[in-house]
Amino acid sequence: MAPDGNAVIFSTNSTHAANPQLMREPGYDPIRDFAPVTLIGLAPLALFVRSDFPAQTLSEFLEYAKAEQRQMNFGTGNTGSLVAAHLLMRRGGFQAEQISYRGTPEAITDLLAGRLQFVVTDMGPTRGHVQAGTLRPIAVTSRTRSVALPDVPTMQESGLPDFDFASWNAIHARAGSPPEIIGTLNRAFVEAILSPEGTAFFRNLGINTAPGTPEQLGEFNASELQRWGEFVALAQIPKT
Q1: Between the CA of residue 11 and those of 15, 94, 227, what are the distances in Å?
Q2: Cα 125 from Cα 1, distance rounded (Å)
Q3: Residues 57 and 128 in one domain
Q4: Residues forming a β-bridge with 19
Q5: Into which family does the record put it (predicted)?
Q6: Same structural domain for residues 177 and 129?
Q7: Rounded Cα distance, 203 and 214, in Å
Q8: In terms of domains, do 188 and 212 share one?
């Protein structure tokens, strides 16, 4: 069946930047096999601990993590969480045991239960726990602060220069979809994302909205694919 633009995918940094760098045979090409429609936005991650964790700031967390004979562990439920945590360990100069989960909610459950010391993840699965006071964000991973956690400093502000990492969401169609259809889709999605309802919806998920043109998404996607290769190499994560 020829591509007609009627099928779109809610794409992420996992599907279009991380997996091709983490998997030997992902089964698709994130650039060649898709037609970019629009970026939705960037989703900063944050370092989360339980509310009773002894460290309040990133410097205190790193001091605690680097204490002699300290046994630390953390949970990961997706590729963004995985790479961000490894980057934190490399840049922060400490080691911790990785515990893999099928999804982030399971990791959050064990963090709340005290079976994990920290999780680096996005705001979506943690928002209710932060509001309830059971989880505490220490620092966000992006260059700029999160719209969902405006009072939480960035890693850079907290003493880790050049730490700039964020998940992202976008819309792609099948490669070869008619340009006029891609244009129509772009205008419709951008209008919805920037509407008051759309802005509020994505803010609640911790996403800093940044829609644009298909060409801008194409350039961004190619850049992110390269950056994720650098992230994976820096974090020393082997391909599976």
Answers
A1: 6, 33, 17
A2: 38
A3: yes
A4: none
A5: Belongs to the UPF0065 (bug) family.
A6: no
A7: 23
A8: yes
> Do residues 48 and 127 make contact, with C-beta atoms less than 8 angstroms apart?
no
Segment (H or E) for 235? helix 214-235
- Total structural domains in the chain? 2
- The strand pair at 34-44 and 8-12 is best described as unpaired
pLDDT (tens digit per residue) in 162-178: 899 999 999 999 999 99
Expressed as residue numbers, the domain containing 122 is 46-140
Please give the mean pLDDT across all residues of the chain.
92
Same domain, yes or no, for 57 and 134? yes
Whichever domain contains 122, its CATH number is: 3.40.190.10
Q: Are 33 and 52 in a shared domain? A: no
Cβ 135 vs Cβ 148: under 8 Å: no
pLDDT of residue 172: 97
Residue 63 inside a domain? The answer is: yes
> What length does the chain have?
240
Residues facing residue 98 across a β-bridge: 74
Pairing relation of β-strands 97-100 and 73-76? parallel
Residues 123 and 50 in one domain: yes
Classify each residue of 206-229 as buried b or exposed e, where b means 16 or more C-beta atoms within 10 Å of its C-beta. bbbbbbbbbeebbebbeebbeebe
- In DSSP notation, 171-208 reads EEEETT--HHHHHHHHHHHHHHHHSHHHHHHHHHTT-E
